[in-house]
Structure formats: C-alpha cells, structure tokens
Amino acid sequence: MKLTLSPEMVQRFPEYTMYTIVAKGIVNDSVPDELAALLAGAAAQVRATLSAESYLAHPRLASWRAAFARFGADPDVYPPSVQHLAALALAGSEIASGSPVVALLNYISLKHLVPCGADDLGRVVGDFGVRLAQGDEIYVPIGGSEVEPVERGEVIYADQRKVMARRWVWRQGEHTKVTPQTTDVTINVDILPPATRAEGEAAVRELMELLAKFCGGEISYNVLDAAHREETIAPPAPRAEPESIYDLLEMRGYIRRSSDREGVRKLLRQPTTIYQGFDPTGDSLHIGHLLSLMVFRYLQEAGHKMLFLSGGGTAQVGDPTGKTKSRRVMTNDEIEHNMAAIRAQVQGIGLADFDHDLPGRPKAEMVNNADWLNMPMFDYLREVALYFSVNRMVKMETFEQRLNEQGHLSLFEFMYPTMQGYDFYHLYTTRGCRLQLGGDDQWTNILSGADLISRRLNETAYAMTFSLLLDASGQKMGKTAEGEAIWLNAQRTTPFAFYQYWVNSADTELRRLFRLFTFLPLDEIDQIVAGDPRAAQHRLAFEVTKVVHGEEAARTAQADARKAFGGAGGLPEDVPTLAATVAQLEAGLPLVDVIASAPDVTSKGEARRLVQQGAVRVNDGKAGEIGRLLTLKDVVEVDGQRAVLVRYRKQSFIKVVVA
Prior knowledge:
Radius of gyration: 29 Å
CATH class of the largest domain: Alpha Beta
Strand order of the largest sheet: 7-6-5-4-1-10
Distance between the termini: 53 Å
Structural class: alpha+beta
Oligomer: single chain
Number of helices: 25
Number of domains: 4
Mean pLDDT: 89
C-alpha cells in the first residue's frame, strides 16, 4: 500500500510536511498512570503559557487557521484539531485518553502545538494519503452513525474507499478509528511553518520513544513533502475478522444513517430478519426504488431473511411524507393487483428471490400489513396509539409543513406513522425482525417502530436508511425533465429510454452511480471513472440497464444508441431536425406527419406505409398504429437535448427536438 500527497495538495500547500509513524504489533488496551500524568502535564503547560483571550494568535495555531481559510474552511466553525485541544486544555476540560495511542498523540499535540492523528492501519483500504476531495467520498464522523457529505475541493485524508479525516486535520472518521483492540497503527504529525523541520522531527522522535515504551511493537516512520510525495508501506497481516456486509454497503455509499452503527454492524454479522416496506400505489416500481432493491439483494445474498412488506393496509391511507395534499384512497382490488405485479416484477429483475430457499440463503417473503392492521379500534388505541406523543408528531416535518400552509391533514393520514411503527412491532414480535430499512426521508417513521418496541418491550430494534438520490437541482432523481417517472417496467419506460437516462448522467456523479446501481467491484469502478467520461457514461447505462432489463435488452439498447447517435460523436450533422413545442407534444404530434416531413419521404401515404410495414421505431420501441401520437412521454435525453428519435427504414432518422 502507498502513502501519498497529491500533486494538487503540494501545489496549494508546498510548505506542508507530513510525518507518518507506522507501528505494528502494539498493545493498546489501557493507559498507565505515568502516561496519564504526561497528558495532564501537557494540558497544564498550555494553561501556563497561553491564554483563552489570545491563544489563537500563537504562530503555530495561526498558521493552521490561515491554511484552513485557504481551502474554504472557517477555522472558527471547523477548528484544526490542535486548536480544539488547546481550547479544551485552557477550559480545564477532559482530554481524550481512551487508549495509550490516543493519549500519546494528544500529549504530543499539546506539548508541541502541532496536529496529530492516529488510524487503525488494519482498517485502511488500499493506498491512502492527503488529497483534495472529489465530493463523492464516504465519510462517517468518529463516534457517529450518519454519512456526512464531503465538499468538493476540501482537503481530506482518505484511503481508496472512505475519508479518514475531513478538512485535513479537523475531524477523524469512524471506519479507521483507533480502539483498545488496535494492533497496527499509523500516526501523523502534521507540520506547517513556522514550525521547522527540526522541530517536527523532535516531536516525532519523542512520540516514537514513548510509543515503544507504552505500547511496544515494530516502529518506523516516513516523511512526505513537496519533494517526496510517496512512500510504500507494508500492509498489516490480514484480520481474522470477516468483512461485514454493513461495511460493504457503507463503502458503496448506500447507508445514510443508522440508529446504532456498531449495533447494526454486529447484528449483520449473523443471519437475521430484516424488512423494508413498499407501498403498492402503482403496478410498477421506478428507479427511486432501485437503490433499495440493490440493498435488498446484497442482504439476501449475505444470508439474511428478507421481508418485502407490501403496504396493503397503509396504502389505503397513503404515506403523507413529503406530500402537500391528501392522496386518493385506493380500493382493495387495486392494491391486490399492484402487489402481485410488483412481486412478479422484482422476482423477474432478480433483485429479490421469493421462490427459492438455498443453503445459507433463505428465500425472501412478501408480507402484507393489511393482515394485521385490521384490528378493533379500541385495541389499536390501547396497544399502539397510547405509546405515541401527539406533541412530537405535530413537529414532524411533513405534518408541520402541511399545517403551516393551512393544508388539509386528515386524522387518517396523521395516524400513518403509528401504523408504520406497529408494522415493525408486529414483525419484531411475530417474526423476530430486528432491522427496518428505508429511504432517509422515512427516518422519523422508521424510528417510530424502534421506539414502540423499546417502550412496550424494553428491547432494542434497529433502523437504517439509505441516501436519497438528488439531481443537480436538489430534487429526487428518477424523473425526466418533463416530470415523467423512469419506470422499471419495460412497457412504461423502454430499455432504450432507460439507457438514455443513465447515459446523460453528470460526469461528477458517475463514481457514485456506479457504486449504487451496479455490482461491479470498486476497483474496476475506479478504473472506469478515471478514463473517458463519455465511455464511462455508456458503461454505466449498459450496466444499470443489464441489472433491470437483462443483458440482451442492455445490448440492444446500446446498439440502438450507437446507431441513433452515430457512435460517440452523436447524431450525424445531416439528420433532419423538427422542432416541437411542449404544447404540441402535450396535445400529441402525429407520427405520420413527422415522418412525412423528412426529405427522403415523398408523402404522407409513404409515411403511413412505413408505419404499416413495421419499418418505423420511436426511440427503441415499435411505432404501433398509424394514428400514433408523439407526446412528452416519448421525450428522452439526446446528447444534452430533450428530443424524440424516430427511425424509419433501417438507418434513416428524424429528431423531434423540444423547443
């Protein structure tokens, strides 16, 4: 594995020097009194030499504050770690000393007024170092359970999978934190002028001597600076501990937050029962559900019993989350039809297997909450509603917004969180279900179930949510520019239109989308994204289309795209273009008129014959009847334009562009 300083980092901060100590085979289980006394003495030294009124002006602290400001981090909001430690010491607050390594790095940081940070080398994945963030990295703050977004261009210390420290030396990450069980560690001592190289080396030598004294092990160190940006570090021995499926999901970017990160990680190390709810408000799922289905597949393949909860009961109410008005109440026949269609769809895609029990991998089950929500009203009030606080519920964002806007909020809808909470309680008590999954917009509703279990049974259940997919405008991904949903049903959204949706993904989102919507290994994703962006977009489109529609449909969509767009360069310049307004497409534009406008079609009669002969395709779908109208539902993204592609004969095209 390699330790690096990126070229961009050296260019922006040529004066920076990073000392990295590597210690293997250490004992890190308890802090001896002698070390605790050293740490207390360093804190006392800070109080004796600095003052709360002027300590930020100390040259070493001022230097780091200025460096933070240079990459856009306000040091008063995001203080460098050494500044934070000095403030704690001046206030007489406790300094962290949970293990010898943590106590040592805090001692050195306070004594020499330089930032220090430690990481568990056994948890570092691949090469690591200091670089500028791309904005798609995974970061969970130390001690936290939520994934925080990383700002593009901020200085980070990261490995190939996650951020080990945000904003350079501001806050460490959870996944490489040092614990009493850590046996292999890296410790950074970060130096900026006016601290000199000699002063940095003195701090490192003292730290190495104390590390050998209190922790033992094999100890070495490396120095990186503008003249020497890379060092090779021998990786530690492989851990006996198997990789957690939680870690895999977190590294791929699925997990937004968990009610108890370590609790969920531990839970998922053994087969358990998990559920996620899907309201059957339609007979097809869309790409907003695809992320959840990917996680469903990962967890089922990891050996967990997966329950696909179809909200036959709650669908009659309608989830009010994010809605500004009430939904239409659905009939039982509609709900049953949709449930059957969704089950067949998900089984057909292959992201859940309801039919086959395999060794170490039980089949998934679809359960319907209408089976248990149809209970006597007084029983429901006594056994469920009693445990919910109206004071808390009216403060839920969905309800608060509706009430503030004077919108109608029925008691039927207001009870929805209690019903979802009871779903979890029922599955916990009858099926041993310990974990509920959902989108992050469902966080409050999901917690209501875990809270109900805790209040009624004094037992622990867990919640885990996925990151919401947002486009560049901050809206949920999954719709075309015209507001049409991208369905997983090939009759509603053709494989070609589905392919085109993904091919037009923003360059900056490619790595994230590959991680979330394909099963490609992370190393392969890194290689693809590092290459030509247009080729990466087409590879993404192919892989996601393959997941949903199968390899044959993906290859057909890919081939049709190449034919339609003339390869990577887009449509040939001589392809006829017809402008159409949104109003025309809303009313319906006759397909025959469009074909007849082409220069090599002599009349409407010839256009009709082409349609009758099956020689016309709209995007990648058959044209259908002679009276076919082109509408906004046919619009796809074509080389950055909103358009409908009409192909006639074999290689003739006309492009209808939305004006």
